[in-house]
Specification:
There is one protein chain. The protein is α+β, with helices and mostly antiparallel strands. The chain has two domains: 49 residues, 2-Layer Sandwich (Signal recognition particle alu RNA binding heterodimer, srp9/1); 64 residues, no CATH class. Helices cover 37% and strands 11% of the residues. It has a three-stranded mixed β-sheet, with no helix packed on it. Helix 2 runs antiparallel to helix 4.
């Protein structure tokens, strides 16, 4: 990407802390008034282009508490989020033309699910035949 293009930064953390310092230092360049801690930000850069900071603030453990889920329990969710980022980076030209929601590729889903079951074989029995068939789980 050319350094003179518009830029987007995306946060998928629960607190959007990755961009706090940047946001504090760039407040004078905000295009819209800051009204919410989860608000997407659009900044006007010196060269006339824009910097968009998308602050979704996904709570990866779904409880609102820090570190409330053990790593081995939440690792599938984290792997699926990471897979989505891989898909976005790997297909950015194709995805730029998409409108609306984009599904995570079946191959990435299968890989995550099967690696998770490989790491935790005792969890296979928690899921029925439909899931095993859909994700080609080896029992």
């Amino acid at each position: 990407m050319d350094s003179n293009d518009d830029k987007k930064l995306i946060s998928v953390s629960s607190g959007n802390i990755e961009f706090n310092k940047l946001i504090r230092n760039c407040t004078p360049y905000l295009i819209d008034k800051l009204e919410s801690s989860l608000q997407d930000l659009k900044l006007k850069m010196v060269n006339g282009h824009s910097l968009n900071i998308l602050r979704g603030g996904l709570v990866a453990n779904f409880t609102g508490k820090p570190d409330s889920s053990l790593g081995h329990i939440i690792q599938m969710t984290r792997a699926l989020l990471f897979s989505a980022i891989i898909q976005i980076v790997g297909n950015s030209k194709v995805l730029e033309k998409c409108v609306g929601a984009v599904s995570l590729s079946v191959s990435l889903q299968n890989e995550v699910v099967n690696l998770w079951f490989e790491d935790q074989p005792n969890r296979k029995m928690d899921y029925g035949k439909e899931i095993h068939t859909k994700y080609k789980v080896v029992i």
